[in-house]
Amino acid sequence: MQYGYGKLILFGEHFVVYGLPGIASSIGLYTRCQFHPNENGIKVRDRLTNKNITLGENKREILDQTMQIILRETGLNGKSFRLEVDGDIPVFGGLGSSAALIVSIIRELNGHYALKLSDEKINGIAFKAEHVFHGNPSGIDNTASTYRRLLWFEKNMSGGKNKIELLKLKKPLPVVIGNTKIIHDTSEAVAEVRQRKEKNPEKFDKIFAQAKELVFKARNALEKGNIPKTGELINENQKLLQEIGMGSPELDLLCKTSLENGALGAKLTGAGMGGCMFALCPDEKTQEKVAQAIRKKGFDSYITSVGV
Fold first, then answer.
1. What are phi and psi of 213, to 5 degrees?
2. Structural domain boundaries of the chain?
3. Percentage, residues of the chain above pLDDT 90
4. Out of 46, 88, 141, 300, which one is annotated catalytic?
5. Which of 92, 114, 142, 260 fits a 20 to 30 Å CA distance from 130?
């Protein structure tokens, strides 16, 4: 059984699509995949989304299209097997559930068939498969899931290899994730930002310049272990995301609730307009307080850490 892990984007979502740097990390929430023999064809059961496919029977299914890419890239066309997928990562929440699904499947096939795929190769295949889910993904989700570290990411806008740097922290950062349970498609959100940018280029150019400056400040704060400064920058990043229209009343409420209960910073993560947010906390006691406050508002919360 192999795992693919979810992710948080600490800084830079939406901006990374345009080649600006971002900082992301894997988290403890996961998807796991288990291989079973099968005599005739390929079957996949995804318990997280209650999807069951027999490969080739419905080529409009996203899971079918994803498997076709994975088989092509791994050279496993013609094989027969059955995959069972489950886990604890909420889907459609901006936590990289699709990337985690893809990575877990590739790793399970890699292990069973002794393909000897490197992390770089696994990441490349996962990025190709992510296009089925997100249209024009940045690549940051699959990269965080594959390498399972805190990382600096820059998309190569010329189509070449993306820039990936693994970052080191003095200690893991305690965070709480809040889930609005409002689904908003990532590809639609990316397209909306692009349309707004085209209609108001001067405003968006200014925001994008601020976002670029902010992420370099964030890297400096993280590497120096300046957690209060990191929290301030998380709040600044949230304001920029609100300015480009990716906030929502529910996300605003959860961010506000987190800050009122001791969080150092709080922002949406992923596509926005719903989905999940996260709060950076100074310690475990505050984590529990923030998590309970979010639950009292009627939303799900998860305690985890980044930078491990």
1. -65, -40
2. 2-166, 173-306
3. 77
4. 141
5. 114
Residue matched to tokens 């995949």: 33
Report, as an integer, the average pLDDT of 108-134.
95
Whether residue 185 lies in the annotated active site: no
Q: Which fold has domain 2-166?
A: Ribosomal Protein S5; domain 2 (3.30.230)
CA–CA gap between residue 7 and residue 144 (Å, rounded): 6
Within 13 Å and on the Cβ side, how many CA atoms surround 254? 34
**Per-residue pLDDT tens over the stretch 192-251:** 899 999 999 999 999 999 999 999 999 999 999 999 999 999 999 999 999 999 989 999
The CATH code of the domain at 173-306 is 3.30.70.890
- The sign of the torsion formed by the CA atoms of 134, 46, 144, 237 equals positive
**Residue 308: predicted pLDDT:** 64
Q: Where are the beta strands (DSSP E) in the chain?
A: 2-11, 22-37, 42-46, 51-54, 81-87, 150-154, 163-166, 173-179, 265-269, 276-280, 300-306
Distance CA 269, CA 176 (A): 12
* Bridge partners (DSSP) listed for residue 166: 151
